[in-house]
Amino acid sequence: MNPDMPPDVQLRHEVFAQLNWDPAVCGCDVDVSVKDGVVTLSGRLASEALKAAVERAVRRAEGIGPVVNRLTAAA
Q: What is the pTM of this model?
């Protein structure tokens, strides 16, 4: 962790690092916001399986706490 970076910004970077590292979800259009340590995911994905894969990847981030998954899947 970078002590000069606000914790929410650092956590957002960690989440994006996990999303970019995981080949199952890399390239997905996911909006990530972090406020007071709570990570909120939003966006529209191609499937429920992809939605679950994104949440699994995010939960691997260092320092992760509560995750609010507002992702939707195409029908």
A: 0.89
